[in-house]
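Weekly structure sync, notes
Attendees: PL (lead), two postdocs, one rotation student
Agenda item 3: pending single-chain targets
PL asked that the sequence for the first pending target be pasted directly into the notes so everyone works from the same version. It is reproduced below exactly as submitted, 209 residues in total.
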Amino acid sequence: MPPPLILKVSEIFASIQGEGLRQGEPTIFVRLAGCNLRCSFCDTKYAWRGGRDFSLEEIIEKIRAIRAHFPARWVCLTGGEPLLQRVERLVRKLKAEDLMVQVETNGTRYRSMPVDWYSVSPKPERYSYRSEYRKKAKEVKLIVTRKLGLSLVMKLRNEFSSTIPILLQTESTRKWSIERGLKILEEALQAGLDNVRFSSQLHRIYGLK
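Predicted structure, written out during the meeting:
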């Protein structure tokens, strides 16, 4: 019998998915604690450390309690970087509960699991990611920092299938990031790059969790 699974969890809550192609869908978020990159522009720095110990059973019970009044079918594992922890058993249990599972990851870790939706967001300065995501990712999100440019977008567009969209996601609602993202989008269009899109954080615009 495997030992009890204990995960460090920052928070579990219900909201809508504010980012990416699943934007607007009701979702239950499990935010795991810990991150291996700690980007300066991160908007969830509180999840870098700490967290409370949750057993697998406690997480599932919490999700069941939320679904009693917010019956979302999607559960999103996010962070921090959720794949720093051994979440395989959690994912399998969520699937056994007939739920859809999304994982938001910076791409530096990979675990073989029955995940329905990998949202991969490589981060500066190296923008490195595991090669498995070239087939597994449903979307690639790039945060529009002051240093992001067309050359990186072109590099990633060449590495990922054109059926996988590259999303230029603004830093919250910062005006300079919006302007830069639109400029890069226009440059990508002129360069003939397929399936590059402009994106925003819906929850930041509307002040949601």
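Discussion points:
- The two ends are 38 Å apart (CA to CA).
- Strands lie at 6-16, 26-32, 52-55, 74-78, 100-105, 117-120, 137-144, 166-170, 196-199.
Action: rotation student to compare against the earlier draft before next sync.
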